[in-house]
Description:
By secondary structure, the protein is mainly alpha-helical.
Amino acid sequence: MVLVILFALGVANFAVNKAVIESGHPVLSSLPAFFSRNGGRVSLMFEFTVLLTAMLVAANGWPGAAIVYAIYSALNLGMGWMVLTGRV
């Protein structure tokens, strides 16, 4: 069940990450170019690496990894919401 929740959070993180990259928000100009180049592939690969690591660690008996990833996801989704709604 934990892996299903992590996967759902990962999908949400990917969606928000892609939406922020495509938004053209001015904050993106402060990031290194390789994060937004090629449609943000490096950023999405990083997101995938974080998700995969959290899932592998949680599946091998470290449920704290799921909590840490849930906190990361909450912060990521909150920041994405702030950027996409123009609050930042």
